[in-house]
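Lecture 7 notes: from sequence to structure.
We start with the chain below.
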Amino acid sequence: MYKWYGRVALVTGASNSIGIEICKSLVQHGMTVCAIAKKSGIPKLDELNRTLFDVKGKMLTFECDITDEDQIKAVFRHIGDKYDGIDLLVNNANVMLKGFLLDGKNTADMYHIMNTNVLALCVVTREAVKLMRQRAMERKDVGHIVNINSIFGHKVTACVPGSQPMNGMYPASKYAATAITECVRQELLFLDETVKVTSITPGLVESDILQENANDELVKLMPALKPADIAAALTFAISAKDNVEVHDIVIKPVGEFL
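Predicted structure tokens for the same chain:
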């Protein structure tokens, strides 16, 4: 992680359980972390900041609804002016809701999932790449986009007969994130950029939205990863040698059957 010391990271969804562990890890490794969260998540980030003493890096918090393009652009303008770019983007913002695709009154929920998990992912990535390219002359060995995906971005697990399936829009959004990750990688190659792209695909994680929103009672009995396990996977991916790009990490707890 030595090459990331003093570099700038931006983390969306920073106030959820995985985001907090990622921010903590990056700050401990000496990075300046721009932590993005909605207004409701800012108190959690403030609490985290109070615990980050005697660390090599620092964390700055930004209130931002990433489904609002104007708010996203305002945050990136501020970071660009202050730090002349960013080096690491972690797309961790994520939303999941209960219900069926065939529900009669679920239109708002469907838009909310897709706006957060897909469209905002694209907009944030686009703006981040602008800042990464802004200081491309300085940046020779860093520049990385990490998307925190889900096992449901690779398969839709059959539910136990008689139990309620999950909202089908969530797996759809995660399949889209899988495709977007690869499309961004190919676009960066076309643009002759050395920015790496990684998808981290967790299974069940403690205190994550999948566990909290599960309709299947069996999910609550399954083993789960800790949020720190996802942060460790991210550290592994971004610590690879300059000639190595980790495309996808699937990380699951032993005994999980999703």
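Points to note: The first strand starts at residue 8 and ends at 11. The radius of gyration is 18 Å.
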